[in-house]
Amino acid sequence: MTEAWNIATSADALASGSTDILIVGAGPTGLALATQLESFHIPFRLVDRSLDRAHESRAAAVQARTIEMLQPYGLADALVARGNASANLELHFDGGRTGELPLGDFGATDTRFPFILFVSQAETEALLGEYLAARGVTIERRMELAGYKTDTKGVEVVLRDAGGVEQRVRTKYLVGCDGAHSTVRKLAGIPFEGDAYLQSFMLGDVELDASPGAAPLSPDTVHSFPGRYGVAMIFPLGKPATWRVIAMSTRNSTRPVKVAPGEENKPMTTELTLAELQGAIDDATASALRVRDPVWMTHFRLHHRQASHYRAGRVFLAGDAAHIHSPVGAQGMNTGMQDAWNLGWKLAFVARRAADASLLDSYEAERWPVGHALLRYTDRIFGLFTRAMSSGGLASWVRRNVIPRIAPAVIRAEWLRTFAFRFVSELGIGYRKSDAVVEGTPALDRGPRAGDRLPDAAVMLNGRATTLQHELVGSRLHVLLCGGAEAFSESADALERITQRYGDSVAVRRLSRSPALDTLVDASGAALARLGVRASGVYVVRPDGYVGYRCAGVELGDMERWMSGWLMDTNRRSRADGVS
User: How many angstroms separate the CA atoms of 516 and 378, rounded?
Assistant: First the structure.
């Protein structure tokens, strides 16, 4: 087990109490983790070294899977209301030719959110922060991690406030959501493997006007300008400025540059001027746009790195502390928040002694491959992009003559749009290889498999319209019995055992085509068909909305054995303090 104790004992050190979970970092990942832990009523503390939350836009897109995961807290529709869910993508080429693609509806029928939501990261953080504040959660700001040491029972942490006063905190688990320069990761000695690239990228939240004689930008539209000497992506932000601009000039080298040892994670120190940003925009748009009134501007350096492990004993990493990559696909913040939702319910179950500590092993097993695949994808796409945007003659000729002809047809291809949305939206992420999920027998030959996301579908409950995800995703494992009540008439004893052994950790719901009290009614059969159930079947839905177990028929023996492998009843809870 890793130990890290880089603290000089001080007379200012204060004895402080204990908590179940200590979260370091109050960005989107830390806030998402805190939101889930609060829903389980798990004691935790959330600390951050910064004085305030982010007010810059930073990440500008929230994907469908992330919005789905906000539903149990009543935040999904609230976030959608703060953003733009009906944007289009418009490609601008030399000669005035354009191609357009709607981003507001990709036709996905198994989600309430078949779009990319453009909304400032500041708005996302504000929404989560307001939710926590309304429930009495305080973010302890100007508080940093000074060091920690671990033992078999927990983690002893030293925190230091802005005045240099230290306090000791005892916690069962420590989670580093503290970004790319993570102190938690460094103290744990976990390598952050990958490469850093120096690119001439610029970012600004600004106002934009059309130059004399040029067409103004269409509102509610993502504009892409693959110009002769540069590229610019312009996003409709709304707040804190109307537009977010990411620009690169191909007049400078785009070749990846190795960074000297020890310099890998240092931010770029040169300030971005309005004149520099205007020059990059001129190169990309042939001087069609004028920039003014910047709210935030910066150079940014691109990295693709991943922690070699997401866990060291009782210490965990999530979000940018675990993985960083190029912004291709707008998935960075979303992946971090989904790390938090994968980890949060597992920490909650173990902390309240509802599950064996071995459940925590599944966090790295499930999320590390997701981060690795994302880095591989973004690195390859970014490599193709930089080669295509190079200043060489062939690349320039392709941008001017080939891309304008093929891009409009490509982006209109429905199959490609569907495939791209499933990937970018992260609806297709699954954990089929995880030891924490099981395909029972007899097997269902259709529908989502164990480890897949639960698809959404409209149903009725006691005369009220609702959806599968709304009813089955939350702070419990939900056993879903699919089929008429008579099909499970002989399962009463097994269901009684389950509810007695596991209490409020497990809830039992029914899904049937026939109306009945407290039954999810699928009169059309569409929801059952989406689950691949013809006559009867059983699903167990995890608190993060993924299928933990499923089988055809009505036999519950396999499901009981799966649950007993890691869920804990009152006779086993005394074993919950250990770490596997």
Answer: 49
Computed on alpha carbons and rounded to an integer, the radius of gyration of the chain in Å comes to 25
Average pLDDT, the chain: 85
**pLDDT at position 446 over 80:** yes
Task: Tell me the per-residue pLDDT of 363-396, one tens digit each, with 9 for 90 and over.
Answer: 999 999 999 888 887 766 666 655 555 555 565 6
Each residue of 414-423: b (16+ CB within 10 Å) or e? eeebeeebeb
Question: Mapping DSSP to helix (H, G, I), strand (E, B) and coil, where does residue 198 land?
Answer: strand
If phi > 0 it is left, if psi is from -120 to 50 it is alpha, else beta; for residue 278 that is alpha
Alpha helices (H) along 135-206? 183-188
Q: Which residue has the higher pLDDT, 155 or 236?
A: 155
The CA distances from residue 444 to 49, 288, 326, 538, 539, in Å, are 50, 57, 39, 9, 10
Give the whole-number percent of the chain exceeding pLDDT 70. 81
In angstroms, what CA-CA distances link 86 with 80, 89, 112, 220, 317? 10, 10, 14, 7, 34
> What domains lie within the chain, and their CATH numbers?
438-575 (3.40.30.120)
Separation in Å, CA 278 to CA 215, 282, 290, 293, 551: 17, 6, 7, 12, 59
Q: Count CB neighbours of 369 within 10 A.
A: 14
The pair of structure tokens assigned to 7 is: 């603290």
Which ranges constitute the DSSP H helices of 352-425?
361-388, 393-401, 403-412, 414-424
Residue 534 region, left (φ>0) first, then alpha (ψ -120 to 50), else beta? Answer: alpha
Q: Determine the Cα–Cα distance for residues 36 and 128; give it in Å rounded to an integer.
A: 11
Question: What does the angle CA 137 – CA 171 – CA 140 come to, to the nearest 5 degrees?
Answer: 35
Comparison of pLDDT for 254 and 43, the residue scoring more:
43
Q: How far apart are CA 293 and CA 201, in angstroms?
A: 19
Residues in CB range of 126: below 8 A, 6 or more apart: 53
pTM surpassing 0.90? no
284 in Cβ contact with 225 (< 8 Å)? yes
Of the pLDDT bands very low, low, confident and very high (cuts 50, 70, 90), residue 271 is confident
Omega before 240 within 30 of 0, i.e. cis: yes
- What order of strands is seen across the sheet that includes strand 477-482? 438-439, 547-552, 537-541, 477-482, 506-512, 520-521, 458-461, 464-467
CA 518 to chain CA mean position, Å:
33
